[in-house]
Predict the structure.
Amino acid sequence: MERVINKYLNVKPSKNANTILKDRYLMKDGQGRYLEETWDDVSKRVARHVASAEVKYTKDVKEIQEIEKKYYNMIKSRIFLPNSPTIFNSGKAMPLELFKKEAKDMGFDDYKKIFDSKSKHNMLSACFVVPMDDSMDGIFEAVKQSAMIMKYGGGVGYDFSVLRPKGTSIAGTGGKSSGPISFMHVFNTSASTIEQGGARRAAQMAVMKYDHPDVLDFINSKKDNDGNSVLNYFNISINIDDVNNFKNKLKNDEEITLEHPESDKTAKLNAKEYLRKISENAWKSGDPGLLFLGKHNHYYAMGHETPVQATNPCGEEPLPPFGSCNLGSIDIAKLIDFVDIGNPKDRNLDIFEDIVYWASRFLDDVIDMNVYPLPQIDEISKNQRFIGLGIMGLADALYKKSLAYNSVEGRKFMAKVTASLAYFSHVASSKLAEKRGNFPDFKKSKYPKGFIPMPLLEDDFDEDIKLWNQKLRDHFLNTAIKYKRNVQTNTVAPTGSISNLADTSSGIEPNFMLAYIRYMTDKEGNRVPLPYINSILVDKMGDDLTEDLEAEIIEQGSLTNIKNVSDEYKKIFVTSMDISAEDHLLAQHVIQSYLDASCSKTINMKKEITVDEVYNIYEKALDLNIKGITIYRDGSLQTQVLEKNKDK
Ligand code: ADP
């Protein structure tokens, strides 16, 4: 690991990264004055805060200092970054002098002081699911609980299927229920008024089971959204919990019965027409997505005890009621210069194994340093110890390896990367359990009986995949697993902000653009252009990248329509919109086959595609090893996260 650290430790974050750092991550006092200046300050604070959890496991201060140094090195070099709330809230409201000391001067009591002075300000997780009862009390209790989570920068998901449909009588009042959609607006308003830990706006996920009587209203609930209005603090997804049943209904052209235990309201809807309605809305606005939570429960080691109910806002983390998960992501684009990740014969593979081990340990320590906003969340988070280690920088790593995202070879690489991540992180979790104990619910889980928490691809997909499959099977089955520290270990987050901090491509997504101009306003109020061009493209093209060509790439964002660029470059340097919906979906399929939780992925589609094509993609998704699907048609919302060549 040293060699990788040495290369990246002192690489300065780009202008773009520094802008985000200053905007969101440098700690400020109550008056808004900066208490930190640099990425180095932030790295030190986060590493020290999280390493303080080690006081639970050792009395040896030298060992804690060493661990703090490892965490610091991984974060400072931006090879590994935890989710934003860990960066925002580590060390917050604590005695600052403890964070200014050199690591070598830290005593055991100093670490212990940090450990003991945790407060509600130290909320470190990004993902939560909050349940609600079908009562006024229950609903408004959930509004309050989620407000507390969002205040500290966490995202929340809810299952609205629990609520009785609109028009159902309410015993005791003689009134009628106003239905789940009306309550979603309450949550939306609450979210809009919450200041997100001073750093970001709120994000929520609303889930509804596919056979709830109000599901058509739910499907239509965001149809007039232009990105700035109408449930704009929500993503929405339909939970098709029984995929096989739904597929059969589609195949046999049968009807789906909509019903709810608390209501006499029932309706029937032809399965094909139903999927078409979903497709029409998704074509218009990207919502709703689909979730297959039944599938998830099948692969979740506690699915029979505490089934998942919804996901966090971006969909990568299905969770049971009051579940929470803290995430972290390894930048594989930086690592790929040193180790051929996923190649089981590579002699440097121990570099990846090592980083996965220390990243997993870091995330496990985060659980102990986390102050959860509710006792119910604390309980399940500590009984199951969810962690979500994932990757970012996939697209840039593919560029470096000259592999196309939308090719069989590209997909083999993706599968091997995630298969090795899954293997090493589960080995890490077992090693940690040997020292620290199993997650308390381990005996109740499916692990002791022999259980593989992910689908795996077919052995004949690739020779190396066959080897990883074998290692995973041995780990989970043949050695009669005795140790597991975490119920789940892998998730791929969108890394929307942290990939910017790391100057790498986000999560497992292709680059949205190869180049663009971002405009900033300086102190004097002038608009300053900040041109960005992908650095790997610049390196690979060398002298081929003339000034004129660079200007054209900035203008276009992609190489596809540029005449003077060879096909070889065009093939490798693909962007989201150059890739067919089917290739996006296949990428998700191979990656998700090795994740025990889920991943954030958008199936980007061109503006011209038809509703039928959206329908076909949704239908295909039902057959793959995926736990959900989100699509986005270019231009389908008036505001889009990044638009080619526009003021951003
Ligand atoms: P980051 O890069 O800031 O760590 P990600 O883009 O990877 O965050 O998102 C990870 C998860 O963090 C999301 O799925 C969601 O649960 C939560 N999250 C992201 N953005 C927000 C937000 N603005 N408000 C609340 N939660 C958020």
